[in-house]
Specification:
Shape: globular
Low-confidence stretches: none
CATH class: Alpha Beta
Oligomer: single chain
Strand order of the largest sheet: 1-2-3-4-5-7-6
CATH architecture: 3-Layer(aba) Sandwich
């Protein structure tokens, strides 16, 4: 794994179109809507980051992720990386940034849900210290699929 050099930019209200395009490209079966994204960007509990290639005059976003921290718990809301860049460490960079943000905000735990069939993401989460909590029957739609609930303890 060589690691893709990227710059992270915190997403803000006004970046909805960028995130909608990412959602439609990366999760065409069940993308978040403009309204869902706008609500997340406006929430004081949520932080989203865009991962962009550092070269070029225009912002070339190649991945993104978001975390919501409420009280002592955090929830990884989404992580997405373009397919041609998967397996090169970008997902790990995004995950590490989101976990770091959760820790800075005072979270003791980070939770996430992942499609049962997404073996690459599950391996990434397990290598990063997440443990499986439960199988969530029929959690994901389009297509209907079980989810796996996972948790990372930040108190150690």
């Amino acid at each position: 794994m060589t690691g893709v050099p990227v710059e992270f930019h915190q997403a803000k209200p006004g970046d909805e179109e960028i995130l909608v395009a990412l959602e439609e490209a990366l999760f065409p079966e069940d993308p978040w809507t403009w309204g869902m994204i706008a609500d997340e960007l406006a929430s004081p509990f949520s932080t989203y980051y865009l991962a962009a290639l550092p070269d070029g005059p225009d912002l070339q976003v190649v991945g993104y992720g978001g975390v919501k921290v409420v009280g002592d718990g955090a929830d990884i809301m989404t992580i997405g990386v373009f397919p041609h860049l998967r397996g090169q460490g970008l997902g790990k960079q995004i995950l590490d940034l989101l976990v770091s943000r959760a820790r800075e905000a005072g979270a003791d735990y980070v939770f996430l849900e992942v499609r049962e069939s997404n073996e690459a993401a599950r391996r990434l989460y397990e290598r990063s210290g997440f443990i499986v909590l439960d199988r969530l029957r029929g959690y994901f739609k389009n297509p209907l699929e079980d989810g796996i609930a996972m948790r990372l303890d930040l108190t150690n």
